[in-house]
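Hi R.,

As promised, here are both runs. First protein below:
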Amino acid sequence: MAVLPITFRADLKRVLSLGLPLAGSHLAQFLLAVTDTIMLGWYGVVDLAAGVIGAALFFAVFTFGTGFANAVMPMVATAAASGQETEVRRATRMGLWLSIGFGIAALPLFWFSGALLTLLRQPADVVPLGQDYMRILGFSLVPALIVMVLKNYLAALGRTQVAFWITVGAVVLNIGLNWVLIFGNLGVPDLGVRGAAIATIIVSLATAGALALYCATLPELRRYTLFQRFWRADWQAMGQVWRLGWPIGVALVAETALFSAAAIMVGWIGTHELAAHGIALEISAMLFMVHLGFSNAATVLVGRARGQRDQVALRAGATTAICVSVTFALATMALYILAGPFLVGLFLSPDEPERARIIALGASFLIVAAVFQLADGAQVMAMGLLRGVQDTRVPMIIAAFSYWGAGLPTSYLLGIHLGYGGEGVWAGLVVGLSVAALLLMWRFWRGPGREGAQPWHA
C-alpha cells in the first residue's frame, strides 16, 4: 500500500480538521432549508412551489450580504497568524456593522416581492403564497447574516466545532417549530408555508444569540473584546471589509442568481417541474456544502500562510484541499447516478398524486447535476483560495462572465428556446460552472499560487 508523504499527511490532517466541521456546519445550516422543503412537500405541492421560488429569491439577496462575512474570514486568519489581535476585532466588528446595515436595507425588497414574482411570470397559484412567505422571511435576514459573520470569525481562529453543534441544535429546533406551525399542531393554526417562514425567524435569532454568547464569554476569545463599545464606528476597518467583501458578494450572487434564474425558467415550464427542480436543487446544494466547507478550510490555511509569509505552505495547503474536494466530487457523482429516484422520493408524501411524475423529473435533473460535480467543486475551491490571498475583484468579473455570459444564455437556449425543458436548463448550469472553474483555477495557479509568488504584497 502506498504511503503518503509526511508533508501531505500533515496538510491533509489540517484540511480535514478544519474542513469537516465547517462542512458539517454548512450541511446543518442548509438542512434548515431542506427540512422546510421536505415538510412543505408533505403539506402540499403549491406550498412547496411557493417555498421553492421564495427561498431562491431570498437566498440570492442573503448571498450578497454574506460577502462581508466571507471577507472577515481571510482578514481574521491573516491577522491572527501575524499576531495582530486588534485587527481581528476591527475586521469582525465592521463585518457585523455592514451585514446588519445590508439586512435592514433589503427589507423593502421582500415586502413588495409579489410584484416581482408576477413580473417573473410565476404560476398564478404560487404568487400570493410566495409573497406571504418572503414578507415574513425577510425579517430573518439580519440575524442570519450575523450568524455568518460569527461563524467565519470562529472558523478563522480554528474554532469550528461550536458552530457545528449550535447549527445542529438549530435544525432540531426548526423541525419542531415546522411541525407546530406548518401543520397546525399543539393548538396552533395551520399556517403552511407561512409557518415555515416564522420558524426560520425564531431559529435565526436563537442561533445568532448562542454564537454571540459563546464569542463573548469563552475565556480564550475574551482578549479580542469583540462586543466592547460595539456602537463605535471604525471607518478605516469598515472600508477594508467593504472593499474586500462587496466583490465577494457580487461573485456569490452571480452564481446564486444563475440558479435562481434557472428556477424561474423552470417555473415557466410548469408547477410540477418547479417542484422537482426545487427538490433536485436542494439535494445537490446540500452536498455542495461539503465542497464549501473544504473551500473555507483552504481560505483559512492560505490566509494563515499569507500572514506568515510562507509560500511553500500556501501551495501545499491549496493542493491538498483540491485533492480532498475532487475525491468527494467523484463520490457524489456515483450517489446521484445510483440513488437519484430514492433521494427525490424522500421529499414527497407517499400519498402525493403526482409523486411518480415529480420523482422522474427530479432524478433526471440529478443526472445532469452529477455531470457538473467536478466543475462545481473546482470553482468554489478556487474562489476560496483566491479569497485567502484577498484577491476578490477579478474573480468577481470571472464569475459574472461565466455564470451570466455563458451559463444563463445556454440554459435559456437549451431549456426554453430549443424546448429541452428542465434538463436543458440544467445543462446550462454545467456550462457556467465549468467556465468558472477553469478561469478561476488558472488565475490562482498562474498568480498567487505559483512557485516563488509573494501574495502578501498583493
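And here is the second one, sequence first, then its C-alpha cells:
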Amino acid sequence: MERFNLTTRMTLRRFTRLTNGHSKKTRNHDAMLGLYFAWYNWCRKHSTLKTTPAVKAGLASEVWTLEQLLTADC
C-alpha cells in the first residue's frame, strides 16, 4: 500500500503541489482520480507483472488502449 501511495503521489501533480494543478471542485477531483485508477489498472503495463493488473486478475483478456478505456460501456 505504501508503494501505491508513493506512485500515486509522484504521478499526479495535484498531489505534489498545492498551488497549480489542484481541482477547484470535488467532482472534478473525483473524476480525475477515477480516470487515473482505471488507466493504472487496465492500460498501464506494470514492470513486475509484465502486464496490467486487470489482465493478471482475469478481468480482461488483453491490455486496453486509452481509447478502449474512454469508450468502455460501464
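A quick note on the second one: DSSP finds four helices and no strands in the chain. Let me know what you think.

Best,
J.
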